[in-house]
Amino acid sequence: MTSATDPSTALTPFPDHTQLPESDGTFVKNWQEHPQSILLTDSITPILKQLHPEGEYCIGQDLGIYWRLTDPPERGAEAPDWFYVGNVPPLLDGQTRRSYVLWREFIAPLIALEFVSGDGSEERDKTPWQGKFWIYEQVIHPAFYGIYEVNKANLEVYELIGGQYQLLAANERGHYPITRLGVELGLWQGEYQNAQLPWLRWWDLQGNLLLTGEERAEQERQRADRLTAQLRSLGIEPEV
Fold it and tell me: Would you kindly state where each structural domain of the chain is located, as residue ranges?
């Protein structure tokens, strides 16, 4: 994953996820990152369990993807706010991943998402060996790269085509199909964790919103309440 022309090539043997720093020591840049990541993971988990009945997948939430060796090591990693990799074991040698190390795993993420906290220039930076956009496009190679700007209610999704990211056009629902997952990605205006925002969410390919566990439980409760009301209207007392 290194180049002979890259001045930051470093030491061997290659370390693994237990030997590399799991954080660069900085704070999360905005409060909304964690609930947004939880929302994405919670709602897509039933889909991923269907795709991977053996549990062979990894979701990273602010987890470092190491793509080159540097000194200090953290400079050789990018940490998408959310990413998904299929067909990899959930644990490595019985341990939860502390990072995702490309020279140990080899499989690129299918999708990586960045949640913008500034003006978006960092996420669109194409400077070789430094810019996030360049690193994702030229080295890490997620098939899809999304840039989500909550303050502008804006989402850009790029697909890696012929080795370069192409900006995708939204479909008629304003969503971006990720067909290999059987889902669409888009913005949903609503309340989650006591915040009314244009949240980043998943839909199925028919346009049905993928619900969180709490939303599914509430939907079931409402269904049960309707059934109870119908039975009582017929003079039937439902069994407790």
Answer: 33-209, 212-240
- pTM exceeds 0.90 for this model: no
The Cβ-side half-sphere exposure at 135, using a 13 Å CA radius, reads 21
Output the pLDDT for position 21. 55
DSSP-assigned letters across all residues of the chain: ---TT-TT---SSPP-TTTS-S--SPPPS-TTHHHHHHHHHHHHHHHHHHH-TT--EEEESS--EE-S--SSGGGGEE--SEEEEESS-SEETTEE-SSEEHHHH-PPPSEEEEE-SSSSTTTT---TTT-HHHHIIIII--SEEEEEEGGGTEEEEEEEETTEEEEPPP-TTS-EEETTTTEEEEEEEEEETTEEEEEEEEEETTSPBPPPHHHHHHHHHHHHHHHHHHHHHTT-PPP-
Cα Rg of the chain, angstroms: 21
pLDDT at 240 (0 to 100): 64
Say if residues 115 and 33 touch (Cβ distance below 8 Å).
Answer: yes
Chain mean pLDDT for the chain:
88
Q: Which CATH architecture does the domain made up of 33-209 adopt?
A: Alpha-Beta Complex (3.90)
pLDDT tens digits for range 206-228: 999 999 989 898 888 887 778 77
